[in-house]
């Protein structure tokens, strides 16, 4: 977008009005709907920071370190533009049996994914803001695909995890 510029929002999803469409995006990118892939159902629940608004909740997360169910989104530069992704931030809240860890991965071809960062989800039933600012590709002239995995749930059949204010930052 602009060399040397301060990081700004490339795309953000806040799920207001129970909507999977991007709520904010830079004028130089396009971003399709946010998604969940897995065996569990999704639903909209009270959002971050004070259980107002909407958040997206997914269920049936992996009970070990295996990457199974995930939330995902993509962002693509408009014709003639490139961007540099610098971080992914999100607010998250898990159920008592929900995933205890998160892994964020990226791909530039939609098939081969690489780790950006990983970490521990906070205590259950409390909102936590997580930032993944590990390895992201430089100078992206094509779509960038992001996956957010939840792992180490204590009960996969009843594990719930909700996310809100999912943001890809960059220049």
Task: List key phrases describing it.
171 residues; mainly beta; 7-stranded antiparallel beta sheet; 6-stranded antiparallel beta sheet; 13 strands
Q: How would you portray this structure in words?
A:
- It is a single chain.
- With 171 residues, the protein is mostly beta strands.
- Strands 1, 2, 5, 6, 8, 11 and 13 form a 7-stranded antiparallel β-sheet that branches. Strands 3, 4, 7, 9, 10 and 12 form a 6-stranded antiparallel β-sheet that branches.
- Strand 5 and strand 6 form a beta hairpin.
- It starts with 7 loop residues before the first strand and ends with a strand.
Topology, please?
Layout: E1 8-13, E2 24-25, E3 29-30, E4 35-37, E5 42-47, E6 52-59, E7 70-77, E8 85-94, E9 101-107, E10 114-120, E11 128-132, E12 144-151, E13 160-170
Antiparallel strand pairs: 1-2, 1-13, 3-7, 4-7, 5-6, 6-13, 7-12, 8-11, 8-13, 9-10, 9-12
Low-confidence stretches: none
Largest sheet: 7 strands, antiparallel
Structural class determined from secondary elements? mainly beta
Helix content: under 10%
Number of helices: 0
**DSSP summary, beta strand count:** 13
User: Outline, from the CA principal axes?
Assistant: globular
Overall radius of gyration: 15 Å
End-to-end separation in angstroms reads 6 Å
Mean of the pLDDT scores?
A: 92
Helix/strand order, N-terminal first:
EEEEEEEEEEEEE
Into which percentage range does the β-strand content fall?
A: over 45%
